[in-house]
Specification:
- A five-stranded parallel sheet has the order 2-3-4-1-5, with helices on both faces. The chain has a three-stranded antiparallel sheet with strand order 6-8-7.
- It is extended and about 120 Å long.
- The model is unreliable at 1-20, 251-255, 700-707 and 827-833 (pLDDT under 50).
- Among the domains are: 15-203, P-loop containing nucleotide triphosphate hydrolases (Rossmann fold, 3-Layer(aba) Sandwich), CATH 3.40.50.300; 207-260; 837-895, Arc Repressor Mutant, subunit A.
- The chain is built from 49 helices and eight strands.
- It is mainly α.
């Protein structure tokens, strides 16, 4: 299937070629395909579309199926006549090449008799131009297929062939098939749209094609085995053919196809003959030395070989389709085909065994210097340089996990001797981290024990790195299973603060950053917002200093959300904006966290429309991505915010439904949110006026879950206020107002102040109530946090109306809150509101000045109207809107989208 049967039965010389030198007829025949060749309609149709261009280039490495593809297409070509010429190295001379071209055209019957006569007795130098002239007489399209065109590289015939390629008239089309174009000037044709490319990627075998081929040969291959085979061969067509041969040869042993490897004789012979054997000794040695790593750059190649020019060599090999593939848009990094690497490894062991440890040590140090943590450890381990490999593990910490994943790291760690895996603190810690990242906290436990026992044998410099790393892993393991033990968190906190005083190197900052991150996530899971803010802020700083950008983004995302929950809306907005604007962000979870923080900010400012839009966008990417051990669930976090938005929107039923669903999910219990959900459920009950249900939720003696927390105390205070026990309400929220209340967020403090305001007013204490209200307004105004006042209901609306004087420093902010209160007037039956009669343009102009708080005289002057005219317009506006005051007119105008 992978290469055509390029020989043909002897054939008499046609009349058109009689009198000419005898030709090798097999070179002029379309190769006859064997019965085991799978006709791939996908590829045939691809070439058929490409052949509509003047020139088609079919390129790929040896065994890619170029000849078979072109022959399959030529045998059934609807384009017209197809002339075929298989090129070899001897055809590089014009005197040999052009007669073969003439014979191919004549054999295909593509050249009219008068055109044939015009091509007779023409010198090789003149033939290309004469052929271009003769082609004007062709009555139907003719396609000239030149197979193995790479054989002409650097040969004299290229000048004439280039002339034909660039100037052949429309009836003549060329299909050039080979490993690479032989130096023809094709770039201009490609830009002009006259060149079509069929590449190695197009020729690669698909899963369906592999299944059809094995079925045709009656080889039973399951879907998983077939997928593994395609991954191993990367769709290389020769690999498919060799696998079938291997399977048949070893059928008695029930050997599958997936075990195909480059060290097998069939693969080795093929690649040595078709690839390595055609390279210079210098290039071959270059491949042997540079293939010790999975990916190689020009600079790394220079380091490995000790000679310059690596980038040029890699580029040349890639262009020549020598199983060397350029990666990325900049083509600065290259990789070798897995089977070629197998062959090179075997040849390296045979030819330069003494160089291998040296090459691997060079590769390890190069990768370490270029932020390639996993590759550095792998190369050092393969070299048997265990001390350097272990030191690298200690220094990179979780960088290897963040960039390459747990599976890759575990494959590297498997290279270490068993004793080293248990007795080296860094190696054991890395194994524990890999298990945690794989979702196996139980499997991580004994590795953590090994690392703890080995920690005492570490040098002081290594200990300063590994110790906070281990502390972080212990916290993450505990948090991923249940609520982290407060004692463990306290120990971790102490370790972090001690390490903070001495951290100086990048690895130390990286390890400390992971510890702060673990502590911050654990505190969030316990809903200890203040502690989480502190820890996550330090995590971002330390991870930035440690150069671990991926985890730093995650830490900054959680920190933005913690700031929003605390009530520091400006800081949350800034942090979320910075993350959202980072086009180079590598962590989609961090982007979702930034969006959730923005949703919370809009909610706190009572901008519900913007909050809903942002939340819908987050819902569109609602998967939990690759959450790290101990992180809160993003879906549950979004659910909490969604319930708050529903409640703010007056949909208490929807909010309660969300709470019930979160209680029923394992994710909610995993976040230890029972207390948070209890407080939210209590607030929903109070919002609907059901104080009895609220008391039942909190507990008959008001001793609900984690009552000592500020949020629970606030819920209790609101309940007691609703029940009319004002003295008890003041006592309940008292600790929230205490300056030493470390777990009280800014939002809780403002809400507690509002409870105290209402309670004092009920006692007739106007002055204390006014002072407390001023404090609440002063705390909320810098961030525009209106929602907490609206959630307190009509008692606070009344308090603001009565207690806030026009001369108060918070009068403007208080006015905005009252406007938001007015805008919350429920709409009857959910039907969109309409004014009784449309406003005139003059009335609308007056209405739009009202939110500016300008006087009627000032509005009159701005509109060049008399004061009486403005008053007339205002009376008409009030009547049409069905309101009796300026504030109500503003609120109604906003609901009608007039403002």
């Amino acid at each position: 299937m992978t290469s055509a049967t390029k020989h043909a039965a002897p054939h008499r010389v046609s009349a058109a070629t009689r009198g000419q030198p005898r030709f090798l007829e097999g070179k002029l025949q379309i190769p006859r395909l064997s019965l085991t060749v799978l006709r791939r309609r996908r590829v045939t149709e691809l070439i058929d579309r490409a052949a509509a261009h003047r020139v088609t280039l079919v390129s790929g490495p040896a065994g890619a199926g170029k000849t078979v593809a072109c022959a399959s297409w030529a045998a059934a070509s609807p384009v017209g006549r197809v002339a075929w010429l298989t090129v070899d190295a001897r055809d590089g001379e014009p005197a040999r090449f052009w007669p073969y071209v003439r014979a191919a055209l004549a054999r295909a019957g593509a050249v009219p008799a008068d055109a044939v006569r015009s091509l007779e007795d023409v010198s090789a130098a003149e033939f290309p131009l004469r052929l271009i002239e003769a082609a004007q007489l062709f009555t139907e399209p003719v396609v000239l297929v030149l197979d193995d065109i790479h054989e002409l590289a650097g040969r004299p015939v290229l000048a004439g062939l280039d002339l034909l390629v660039r100037h052949a008239p429309p009836p003549v089309r060329l299909v050039l098939s080979g490993r690479c174009p032989p130096g023809l000037q094709l770039a201009r044709l490609r830009v002009a749209g006259d060149l079509a490319d069929v590449t190695a990627a197009d020729l690669a075998c698909t899963a369906d094609e592999a299944a059809a081929y094995f079925a045709m040969l009656s080889i039973d291959v399951g879907a998983a085995e077939r997928e593994e085979f395609l991954t191993r061969t990367e769709g290389w067509m020769a690999g498919l053919r060799l696998a079938s041969i291997r399977h048949r040869a070893s059928a008695a042993e029930l050997c599958g196809v997936t075990g195909i490897a480059g060290h097998e004789p069939m693969i080795t012979d093929y690649l040595c003959d078709e690839v390595l054997g055609k390279l210079s000794a210098e290039t071959r040695l270059f491949l042997l030395r540079t293939s010790v790593t999975e990916r190689v750059t020009g600079d790394l190649a220079d380091t490995l070989t000790g000679e310059p020019g690596g980038a040029r060599t890699l580029e040349r090999l890639s262009r020549q389709n020598s199983f060397v593939e350029a990666l990325g848009a900049d083509h600065a990094t290259y990789r070798y085909h897995p089977l070629l690497r197998d062959v090179l490894a075997a040849e390296r062991d045979r030819e330069i065994p003494n160089e291998i440890p040296i090459l691997l040590r060079r590769a390890a140090r190069w990768h370490a210097a270029h932020d390639g943590a996993t590759d550095a450890v792998r190369s050092a381990a393969q070299a048997g340089d265990w001390d350097y490999a272990a030191r690298m593990l200690a220094e990179v910490g979780t960088a290897a996990l963040m960039r390459d994943g747990a599976q890759t790291l575990e494959q590297v760690l498997a290279l270490f001797p068993a004793g080293r895996r248990a007795d080296d603190a860094a190696v054991a810690a890395a194994l524990a981290a890999a298990r945690l990242w794989s979702g196996d906290p139980d499997g991580a436990a004994h590795h953590l024990d090994d690392a703890r026992r080995a920690l005492g044998r570490c040098a002081e410099a290594e200990r300063r790195i590994v110790e906070p790393w281990l502390a972080a892993l212990r916290v993450m393991r505990a948090s991923s299973q249940a609520a982290a033990d407060p004692g463990l968190l306290a120990q971790g906190w102490t370790s972090a603060e001690q390490a903070q005083a001495t951290a100086g190197t990048q690895p130390e900052h990286r390890a400390l950053g992971l510890l702060w991150f673990a502590l911050g996530a654990a505190r969030l899971r316990r809903w200890e917002i203040n502690a989480a803010r502190y820890a996550l802020n330090h995590a971002g700083q330390q991870l930035t200093a440690g150069g671990l950008g991926e985890l730093c983004e995650r830490a900054r995302g959680w920190h933005a959300l913690a700031e929003a929950w605390y009530g520091n809306l400006a800081a949350a907005e800034k942090a979320a904006g910075e993350l959202a604007e980072g086009e180079s962000s590598r962590d989609p979870a961090a982007a979702s966290l930034a969006a959730l923080a923005s949703v919370q900010v809009h909610l706190a400012r009572d901008d519900l429309a913007a909050a809903r839009i942002l939340l819908a966008d987050v819902d569109g990417h609602s998967a939990d991505f690759c959450l790290l051990p101990g992180e809160p669930s993003l879906s549950v976090v979004a659910g909490l915010i969604r319930a708050r938005i529903a409640l703010a929107d007056g949909d208490a039923t929807g909010a309660r439904g969300l709470v019930v669903r979160m209680r029923d999910t394992s994710a909610a219990s995993d976040l230890q949110l029972d207390g948070v959900l209890t407080v939210l459920d209590c607030e929903i009950a109070l919002r609907t006026g059901d104080a009895g249900r609220a008391r039942m939720i909190l507990g008959a003696d008001a001793d609900g879950p984690r009552r000592e927390q500020a949020e629970s105390l606030l819920a209790l205070g609101r309940l007691l206020l609703a029940e009319g026990d004002f003295a008890a309400a003041l006592e309940a929220v008292g600790p929230c107002l205490d300056a030493s209340a470390g777990d009280a967020t800014l939002q809780i403090k403002v809400a507690a102040l509002l409870v105290a305001v209402v309670a004092n007013r009920r006692f007739g204490r106007t002055k204390p109530a006014t002072e407390l209200l001023d404090q609440a307004l002063a705390l909320a105004e810098p961030d525009g946090a209106c929602r907490v006042f609206l959630a307190a209901g009509q008692p606070i609306r009344s308090a603001i109306t009565v207690l806030v004087q026009p001369t108060s420093r918070s009068a403007r902010f208080a006015g905005r809150i009252l406007e938001r209160f007015d805008a919350q007037i429920p709409r009857a039956g959910g039907v969109p509101e309409q004014s009784e009669a449309p406003l005139t343009s003059s009335e609308l102009a007056v209405l739009r000045f009202l939110p500016s708080h300008m006087t009627n005289q000032e509005i009159a002057e701005a509109l060049f109207l008399s004061i009486n005219t403005v008053k007339t317009h205002l009376r008409s506006v009030y009547r049409k809107l069905g309101v009796a005051s300026r504030r109500a007119a503003i609120a109604r105008g906003r609901r009608l989208d007039l403002l």
